[in-house]
């Protein structure tokens, strides 16, 4: 009995709401000496250790972490599994970067053995960085998605992924057809969607690489199966936007292409959205669609600065994405460090609690999974991480100067990276220890 039950004692911090909606103070819950009780892969209780320990069954083991903070596992709302091997590729902006580096790298995933090898490395890298859930692009090859889901299933991760649909404006070796993309996606949905904690995302790469026929079939899949996700790119780069207008002159703009094919909705996640007009923001909000804010990618490819204030004004759901391999780190702590600077360049502030929200509950809401992940509330999946205040000599010394959890949180997002993640738990199981 007790094997499935365990308790963890440390400082505990989680988001309860978006600070933009309720103000900073009401947006989080913090226990300086807290206890998190786990039962059968779920959180069964959270509170002050002094309040919970006396009532805890004697047979429940209590693990005590010193100089550590437990938070929900991080949620990466946009990342490319087949781009792991090309992270940090020099010198290009989006469209040339795709042709020069991305497509040749993704080609290798026609080989299942290669996909298996990279899937293991990719999932380990997520867990090393404290990411317990992610919305993931595969390559055009169904094998890439099989490899990734097999690895995620082995570790019982909550993961969403899909095969890229791409039937034009890409090398022949990397294109499918409208019909084959539909059939292959359907087979993957039948095999994986709803299995354990896995979900499927219909994944047209972006409007320029899909014919109208393919986008129509993507919309058809969303209608045929319940609770599918839609995952694509939107308004990342100015040349890309001009290209979309040239390819779809009958549509009023980039988002309207996706809207026309009925791809917007509560489980639709659009990466970037760097150059959106107010009407597009309004449409994203009213359809319950989400945007993945990918600061390291937007800076690395010179795409532009995401306007978080505009997204907040329109009440668009926003999650955080690493966008590896255009993004330069798997770490959502490092990604928040860059997000803060993106805001500074626009004369705005990213508060530490908004950062926490973006990396956890905001991501969960973007994925329509807030009842399962993103907080430490009782009933949630036991996906959580242990952050180490002493991960590096500098972090240790800096945190010793900290006067509040707010300051400590800001320092963690400014200096933190994979070294800061002491341990990662998925569905109550330890899946990474540093
Ligand atoms: N737009 C279309 N494909 C991609 C991709 O692989 N990465 C990024 N950042 N943008 C894209
Ligand atoms: Zn991307």
Automatic annotation (TrEMBL):
Molecular function (Gene Ontology), one example: zinc ion binding
Functional pathway: Purine metabolism; guanine degradation; xanthine from guanine: step 1/1
Pfam families listed in its UniProt record: Amidohydro_1
Superkingdom of origin: Bacteria
Enzyme Commission number(s): 3.5.4.3
Enzyme class: hydrolase
Catalytic activities: guanine + H2O + H(+) = xanthine + NH4(+)
UniProt keyword list: Hydrolase, Metal-binding, Zinc
Family: Belongs to the metallo-dependent hydrolases superfamily. ATZ/TRZ family.
Protein name: Guanine deaminase
One GO term of the biological process aspect: guanine catabolic process
Residue span, Amidohydrolase-related domain: 70-431
A cellular-component GO term for this protein: cytosol
Essential cofactor(s): Zn(2+)
SUPFAM superfamilies with a match to the protein in the record: Composite domain of metallo-dependent hydrolases, Metallo-dependent hydrolases
Cofactor comment: Binds 1 zinc ion per subunit.
Chain's role: Catalyzes the hydrolytic deamination of guanine, producing xanthine and ammonia.
InterPro entries assigned to the protein according to its UniProt record, in alphabetical order: Amidohydro-rel, Guanine_deaminase, Metal-dep_hydrolase_composite, Metal_Hydrolase, Metallo-dep_hydrolases
């Amino acid at each position: 009995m007790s094997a499935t039950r365990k308790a963890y004692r440390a400082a505990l911090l989680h988001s309860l709401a978006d600070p933009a909606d309720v103000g900073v103070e009401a947006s989080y819950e913090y226990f300086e000496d807290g206890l998190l009780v786990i039962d059968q892969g779920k959180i069964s209780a959270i509170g002050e250790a002094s309040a919970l320990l006396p009532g805890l069954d004697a047979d429940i083991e209590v693990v005590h972490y010193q100089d550590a903070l437990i938070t929900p596992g991080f949620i990466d709302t946009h990342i490319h599994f087949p781009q792991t091997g090309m992270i940090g590729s020099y010198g290009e902006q989006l469209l040339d970067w795709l042709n020069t580096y991305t497509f040749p790298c993704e080609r290798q995933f026609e080989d299942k053995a290669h996909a298996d090898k990279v899937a293991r490395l990719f999932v380990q890298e997520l867990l090393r960085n404290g990411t317990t859930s992610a919305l993931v692009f595969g390559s055009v090859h169904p094998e890439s998605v099989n490899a990734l889901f097999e690895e995620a299933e082995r570790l019982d991760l909550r993961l969403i992924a899909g095969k890229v649909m791409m039937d034009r404006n890409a090398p022949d070796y990397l294109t499918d057809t409208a019909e084959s993309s539909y059939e292959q996606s359907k087979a993957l949905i039948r095999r994986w969607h709803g299995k354990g904690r896995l979900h499927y995302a219909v994944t047209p790469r972006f409007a320029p690489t899909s014919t109208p026929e393919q986008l129509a079939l993507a919309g058809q899949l969303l209608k045929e199966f319940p609770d599918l996700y839609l995952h694509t790119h939107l308004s990342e780069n100015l040349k890309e936007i001009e290209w979309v207008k040239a390819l779809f002159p009958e549509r009023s703009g980039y988002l309207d292409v996706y809207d026309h094919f009925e791809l917007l909705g509560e489980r639709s996640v659009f990466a970037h959205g760097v150059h959106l007009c107010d009407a597009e923001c309004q449409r994203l909000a009213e359809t319950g669609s989400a945007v993945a804010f990918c600061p390291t990618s937007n800076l690395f490819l010179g795409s532009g600065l995401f306007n978080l204030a505009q997204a907040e004004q329109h009440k668009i759901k926003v999650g955080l994405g690493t966008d590896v391999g255009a993004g330069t780190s798997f770490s959502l702590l490092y990604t928040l460090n860059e997000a803060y600077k993106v805001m500074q360049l626009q004369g705005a502030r990213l508060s530490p609690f908004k950062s926490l929200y973006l990396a956890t509950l905001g991501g969960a809401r973007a994925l329509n999974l807030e009842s399962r992940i993103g907080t430490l509330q009782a009933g949630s999946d036991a996906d959580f991480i242990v952050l180490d205040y002493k991960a590096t000599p500098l972090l240790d010394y800096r945190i010793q100067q900290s006067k509040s959890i707010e300051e400590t949180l800001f320092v963690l997002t400014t200096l933190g990276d994979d070294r800061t993640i002491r341990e990662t738990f998925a569905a109550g199981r330890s899946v990474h220890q540093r």
